[in-house]
Amino acid sequence: MKKILLSLLLLTTIKTFSQKNYQQIHADAILIDSHNDILNECFEKGYSFDQNLQGKTHSDLNRMLQGGIDIQVFSIWCNGKKEHPFAYANKQIDSLYAWIARNTDKMMLVTTPKQLQQAVKQHKLGAMIGVEGGHMIENNIAYVDSLYNRGTRYMTLTWNNSTPWSTSAMEETKDSLLHQPKGLSAYGKQIVQRMNALGMMVDLSHVGEQTFWDAIHTSTKPVLVSHSCVYNLCPVFRNLKDDQIKAVAKSGGVIQLNFYSGFIDSNYEKRMNAIILSHKAEADSLKLAGKSEAAVAKFIQNKYKTELEAIKAPLSKLLDHLDYIVKLVGVDYVGLGSDFDGIEAPPAELTDVTKYPLVTKGLLERGYSKKEIEKILGGNFIRVFEANSR
After folding, report:
1. Are 88 and 130 part of one and the same domain?
2. Judgement on whether residues 200 and 294 belong to the same structural domain of the protein
3. Regarding beta strands 71-76 and 152-156, do their DSSP bridges make them parallel or antiparallel, or are they unpaired?
4. Within 13 A of 304's CA, how many CA atoms are on the CB side?
């Protein structure tokens, strides 16, 4: 009996130590999320990032700090049909500047590796800027300089839509959408070269395979993949194949993993389609009544929230993608780019940014060392940022 009690006590002690251990590792590490869409979410819905947005968004200022995020790259985005996207990008940057100005005790703009370390030392949220989609420069290479001067430190060469100088993953995989040669044009290569010269990271999330390879062969600095996952585990157009993963590693770059259930779980789309089909009659009747597609989607999402929550991928699926990259090319080439507030279905356990410590816990449970976890949470991104800044 004494042996049983001793064993139970030992197990409890180990569990308690493990919990404290992951929390301490999380607190000690520099946590960098390379992609979050809260800026556009606030911009379009009239929310304020420095207010409590619990229940409305995945993110707000205090919850980011609570989750242990040290550096957040705020995504500047609009879809490819937006008029005057460059002006829209600047308005979003203005909003971020306003948030920082109102909260100088809690956050600061980060444009250099030195400022990054300063933000960490001062326990402030370091706000970085990433432009998601080359269409936002409106085919004007001078706008790359302008966005850089305003603080942009990466640009995704395409979003889902192609530009006249680069083709997207969505359009390269759907030939009916593509009306131009695949890959980077000569002008597109000039844009990559200009980004290299400035110190703006070349982001290859969303780009088509030919654009990917053209950029890899053009860039003289390590590339970034700010929010993508592994094609072999989840074969969707947004994920990277093995040869692409190896090429990113060879460049000295980093792949920051997207949290979207549809990019980490190959069965998620089937589960989602089953739910859509089961409520199709109700959706069709709403459309006949004059409701818009967006209004119908929101109604279905709200009414059947429990069903939608149940089909989310588990955190283990995200960690499987991380393990895959580590086994293929090593621990130096993977990080985290959540896409929070740009996705409707993160892993079930990761309900918002405050749950980030669970990622650290999962890494520890899978046998990663403190040093390896520190690389994954932020160290690898810092290395690429530094290499581009030189």
Report:
1. yes
2. no
3. unpaired
4. 20
Residues in the chain: 390
CATH number at residue 240: 3.20.20.140
Q: Does 237 lie in the same domain as 89?
A: yes
Question: Final residue of a domain: which of 312, 343, 377?
Answer: 312
List residues bridging with 108 in a β-sheet: 126
Dihedral sign, Cα of residue 34, residue 38, residue 41, residue 44: negative
Among 227, 262, 257, smallest CA distance to 74 is for 227
Same domain, 126 and 217: yes
**Co-location of 144 and 203 in the same domain:** yes
The one-digit pLDDT tens for each residue of the chain (390 residues) are: 555 555 555 444 444 445 569 999 999 999 999 999 999 999 999 999 999 999 999 999 999 999 999 999 999 999 999 999 999 999 999 999 999 999 999 999 999 999 999 999 999 999 999 999 999 999 999 999 999 999 999 999 999 999 999 999 999 998 777 889 999 999 999 999 999 999 999 999 999 999 999 999 999 999 999 999 999 999 999 999 999 999 999 999 999 999 999 999 999 999 999 998 999 898 888 888 887 776 777 788 788 889 999 999 999 999 999 999 999 999 999 999 999 999 999 999 999 999 999 999 999 999 999 999 999 999 999 999 999 998
Element (H, E) at 114: helix 113-121
Q: Which two tokens stand for residue 155?
A: 């640009």
Give the whole-angstrom CA distance, residue 224 versus residue 330: 16
DSSP 8-state code for residue 314: P
CB atoms under 10 Å from CB of 90, counted, come to: 17
Same domain membership, residue 252 and residue 379: yes
HSE-CB for 50 with a 13 A CA cutoff: 14
- What span, in angstroms and rounded, lies between the C-alpha atoms of 118 and 123? 9
Chain centroid, CA 368 distance in Å: 22
Number of folded domains that form the chain: 2
Where in the sequence is the domain holding 297, given as residue range(s)?
A: 269-312
